[in-house]
Design goal:
- The chain is α/β, with parallel strands linked by helices.
- Strand 23 (538-543) and strand 24 (546-550) form a beta hairpin.
- It is globular and about 75 Å long.
- The two termini are 21 Å apart.
- The relative contact order is 0.17.
Length: 573
Amino acid sequence: MSGDLLIKNGTVVDGSGKPSYQGDVAIKNGKFVDPSSVTNGTRVIDADGKIVAPGFVDIHTHYDAQIMWDSLLTCSPWHGVTTVVMGNCGFTLAPCTPEDREYIMQMFGRVEGMNVNALRSGLDWSWQSFPEYLDRIDKEKLGVNVGTMVGHSAVRRFVMGEAASHRAADADEVQQMKAQVREALAAGAFGFTTSLSPTHYGADGAPVPSRLATHDEVVELGSTLREFGVGSIEIISDTSVRGGDGFSPEDEALMTRLALESGRPINWNELSHSWERPTAWKNQIDYMERAAKQGAEVYAVARCQRLDHMFNFGVLLPFFEKWPTWKEVLGQPKDKVLEVLQNPEARAKLKQEAWDANPGLSDWRKLEKIGFVRSKTGKFTEHQGKRIGEIGEALGKDPVDVMFDISIEENLEAEFAFIGSRNGDMESVAELIKSPYSLAGISDAGAHTDRLSGSYYTSFMLSHWVRDTGTLTLEDAVRRLTSMPASLYGINDRGLIKEGLAGDVVIFDLDKVDWLPAERFYDFPGGEDRLGNKAKGYEQLVVGGEVVFEDGEPTGALPGKVLRSGDYRSNGH
């Protein structure tokens, strides 16, 4: 058990949304106590001029595999997060039969951008059932706290096998699935997750299993939460991010039914601005307001930062899969790709195909608007941050030649990006993040490690929406990062600085807090790489009274734990 900790002279933002105040915060035996009761603390931190807030709670992560080789669950704690919830979008590693392990890993690879080689190397698969998976991760020493959910696609595949991706379930299969969900919740899962997104396919080319579910099946499985009275249901509906100008009537009815029949809040992924659906977010907020009047709690995980899709030519990007020549070339080993890009005839064919397609692309996807993010060798740093059209004009080159030439020079490791694929209009984002139905997000931490890094959303919220623009007050932003997401899942001993609650704290300098440029880390099993962002401005990260990070560096303390929903059903906080 940790000793006493006294944090003195800080500006305390307690997570409730109430005005901040100057004062002291004390932690004894892992919980907040009256500061006057701690006189001989094992450590005193002077937080004069700094913000003292509850540790941030990130409810949309995919650390299901990474937890087994990264005890700190980076990048999240770099950005002030002390509690994560994983198992989103219907994708979990349990339940899973031995025969389906490869399918599940490939599904994570295809949909969530996880490195399958790292999964094969890093997972010991000492479980089949969800309770066994929970027991397995409970053996890990952790720097932060972790809540889990059970995924629809995993449950469906476990019960139905290959048929899960090809047909509706019969009544008996639905009851078998419901039994699996119940078993997971009883063991400690904080909810049920599903995806009906038309973009989600397994590696075999068939839809992920949850997409074959009827709405009645989804509601039947989700209703299981009523028996436990804790947790949330996370969903990507058919029209969450694609389709018409908002949700379809069918999706609205589904989410309302889920909330009412489960008796628990629903959170859907994701509320954001899209150039293809520029006003959809307004109509989606209107729906949540109507649902609330019916007694249905429906919330959105709102993307608070611009989303850029990063890529290099060492990996086939989904955006290029519709171009036959590009798909054929970029799907080959790196040495073959380099050979083709240096072949004038083959290169001309690639360029022609790209420019033929360009007029029909959305504005943010236009070739000339692709951004050059990072020079791996440093040879081209003068062009970083510019669009390839701009670079091409300065050099007298075709923009596609700019990408190819830089990529060849840098062994296909130069980083480019489609800029503003989501939240390209920040004026709209400023409005949607203020909705009472929107939760700050979205990190997707642990997923899309090949080309995206969203774990810095907390740092963006504080630096951009609080400090730089004043769009949100500090107190409201901290509430959206702490008590609001914690209460959604019923994790009611975290998210507030209050006597008797868990002593999770982040201390930061609001004038300095920021995210650092994305970089590649080669620390996954087998030396595989991932994309991530570090941060600055965070002084200390405290979990259960123990300092886990100081000035961005780990201290070696690992006080985090796997949270179990059963501990929150009637604890009275």
